Automatic annotation (TrEMBL):
Residue intervals of the Helicase C-terminal domain: 210-375
Domain Helicase ATP-binding, residue spans: 23-191
Enzyme category, top tier: isomerase
A family per Pfam: RecQ_Zn_bind
Protein name: ATP-dependent DNA helicase RecQ
Cellular component, GO, one term: bacterial nucleoid
GO BP term, pick one: DNA recombination
Length: 640
């Protein structure tokens, strides 16, 4: 069966290593995990079984661009697949949902956030599902390099939807992360399929370069073979713009690519690169996920990657056609403070955690909030705030009840009376009440659920279900906004000080883990043993040769990255001149708040106060965070 499906639908005559082992397990009714390097064909491990399984395969995918690329591939093979995503119109979403309801789809791709949508959960609960696929499954591991709290809820969603099988896909799972993934989804150890991480066609090199020397090398390298498809990775969006502009000035057609660009422009740049009309992309990590371009000849890290896992994923985009390709890191310790600042920015202050706990304690039996507003209220970034909520769940303080959109609005596609005429008796009466509680402003009607309850004892969920049905029939166009989370408060007897200390300790542990990951990255780049072997060993692949013969270490070019002299800090007067305007704005002297400000780390507080406009913001971005914190703590000891 496998060979027949492979040939008929995909045009391949054989599977790659590991693919058959995964596919066979799924077709035998088991769950599995595929830990393959980037470009090794993980996607086929669900695409082929989806054709043989009786019901829908639901795929959790991390990026919109990735979903669209996968969708284009599947449709080119005549496979019934679709996405539900934020780029679609209401009519497009309605059409996809109807296709799924009618059993016309084999594969449906969504983001993990889609499962927070109460309308979607109501819808998908009525669709028979055969398989849940979790791409980038390492995101479920709290100690992985890219933890995403929403992934922690996937095992619960699987149980609620009664999905019999699960497939986990990742290219960057260390042994500890593999064990974590396996435990959370109850996958048998024998059903973890790990293939080798060694890529014999990749030439790995680390060059200790900084400043002008780095720019000169990059220009010369690109001029040496200007038609070679190349990705140049940088850390920051403005670095992508600057680097691309410098390359263009030297006669190289290069385009910046990052999440801050207009989506249409990003899409055009990606299409030009895929079609060979553009040979060089200067990108943040927003570029590359799911890019299936086989002939990328060079991956150059102009800045240090964020971790060994990121490095492995990014170089994995080179040479997928098996031909020789070069992966070069232009390394310097001068790039380290920027990466460290990403880490420090995600550690909430102990006082902020205590503030959150007080909000929970005072909320009553049910706690409703908007994540954005809560982030602003507590001065905790949204990602660590989501993590905190998960920690509170694990501590038995709160439990998720449901989420809903605070605002539903709709416009009539069919005349109101024509819709009502399609219903009889009580259902018609209920719809009349719904429409009566949805005042119309020109075109759109905004649903007032409170008025529906007060006036008619009409239940919110029934009204939302009715509006969903009307949209599915194409009689109204429906929009929902302002996601609101509702949690049950299981314990209001919170020892705020003690629990805040414990939770802060967890974040400090995570912070130290991430900083250690950066040190491991530097140790890897300055290794005196084969880079290919060291990289494979990091991912528990002991089959790689001890000497590849084609990395910079094997060529005798060991990278030395000497510690940089401290750039020195301003005197007390200079620090006060930068910090005092922020203190006047926010009425806080907490050393970490001030240090983040000086190091250019945006927080909800500084964003709300438009503190980026103050002279001190980012003045010490290239200084080690710990040194700045020590100086600020000495200067403002009152709250240190």
């Amino acid at each position: 069966m496998i060979t027949s499906l492979l040939t008929r639908h995909f045009g391949f005559d054989r599977l790659r290593p590991g693919q058959e082992a995964v596919i066979s397990r799924l077709l035998a009714g088991k769950s599995a995990a595929a830990i393959f390097p980037t470009g090794a064909g993980k996607s086929l491990c669900y695409q082929l079984p989806a054709l043989a399984l009786p019901h829908l395969t639901l795929v959790i995918s991390p990026l919109l661009a990735l979903m669209h690329d996968q969708l284009a591939f599947l449709r080119s093979k005549g496979i019934a697949a679709a996405t539900l995503d934020s780029s679609q119109t209401a009519e497009e979403s309605r059409r996809v949902m109807q296709q799924a309801s009618d059993g016309q789809l084999k594969i449906l791709m969504i983001s993990v956030e889609r499962l927070k949508n109460e309308r979607f959960r109501r819808f998908i609960a009525h669709i028979p599902l055969s398989l849940l696929v979790v791409d980038e499954a390492h995101c479920i591991s709290e100690w992985g390099h890219n933890f995403r709290p929403d992934y922690l809820k996937l095992p619960d969603h699987r149980r609620e939807l009664a999905i019999p099988q699960v497939l986990l896909l990742t290219a960057t799972a260390t042994p500890a992360v593999m064990a974590d993934m396996q435990a959370k989804f109850a996958i048998d150890r024998n059903d973890l399929v790990v293939t080798g991480f060694y890529r014999p066609n990749l030439d790995l090199a680390v060059l200790p370069l900084a400043g002008i020397a780095r720019d000169t090398w990059l220009r010369e390298e690109l001029h040496r073979d200007p038609a070679a498809p190349t990705i140049v990775y940088v850390t920051l969006q403005h670095s992508a713009e600057q680097c691309a502009a410098q390359l263009q000035a030297s006669g190289i057609r290069a385009c910046a690519y990052h999440a801050g660009l207009d989506p249409a422009l990003r899409s055009q740049i990606q299409h030009d690169f895929m079609a060979g009309r553009l040979h060089c992309i200067v990108a943040t990590i927003a570029f590359g996920m799911g890019i299936d371009k086989a002939d990328i000849r060079r991956v150059i890290h102009y800045d240090l990657p964020k971790s060994i896992e990121n490095y492995s994923q990014e170089i994995g985009r080179a040479g997928r056609d098996g031909l020789p390709s070069r992966c070069t890191v232009l390394a310097s310790r001068a790039q380290l403070p920027v990466l460290e600042n990403f880490v420090y920015g995600d550690t909430p202050d102990r006082d902020a955690i205590a503030n959150l706990l007080d909000i929970v304690r005072q909320s009553g039996a049910e706690w409703e909030f908007s994540l954005l507003r809560l982030s602003n209220e507590t001065n905790i970034r949204q990602l660590p705030l989501k993590t905190l909520l998960v920690y509170l769940e694990m501590a038995g303080v709160i439990a998720p009840a449901y989420s809903y959109f605070a605002e539903y609005r709709f416009r009539f596609v069919l005349e109101k009376q024509a819709i009502l005429a399609r219903f009889n008796s009580e259902r018609r009466q209920f719809l009349e009440q719904v429409f009566a509680c949805a005042p119309q402003a020109r075109t759109w009607c905004t649903m007032d659920f409170e008025a529906l309850w007060q006036g008619y004892q009409g239940e919110r969920q029934r009204a939302a279900t009715a509006l969903d049905y009307l949209q599915q029939q194409g009689w109204i166009e429906l929009e929902s906004k302002q996601m609101t989370e509702v949690y049950r408060v299981l314990s209001q007897q919170i020892d705020t000080a003690t629990l805040a200390e414990e939770l802060h300790g967890l974040f400090e542990k995570k912070e130290q883990s991430e900083l250690a990951r950066l040190q491991a990255l530097l140790a890897f780049f300055t290794s005196t043993t084969c880079l290919s072997h060291e990289l494979a060993r990091y991912f528990a692949d002991d089959a790689a040769p001890e000497r590849c013969g084609h990395c910079s270490v094997c060529r005798g070019e060991i990278a030395v990255l000497p510690p940089l002299p401290s750039p020195g800090l301003p005197n007390e007067h200079g620090l006060r001149a930068w910090c005092d305007p922020l203190i006047a704005l926010c009425h806080q002297r907490h050393p970490r708040i001030l240090t983040r400000f000086l190091c250019g780390i945006a927080t909800p507080l500084t964003t709300r106060l438009k503190a980026r406009d103050l002279a001190g913001f980012g003045q010490l971005a290239n200084h080690p965070f710990a040194e700045v914190l020590a100086a600020v703590s000495a200067l403002y000891p009152a709250e240190s």
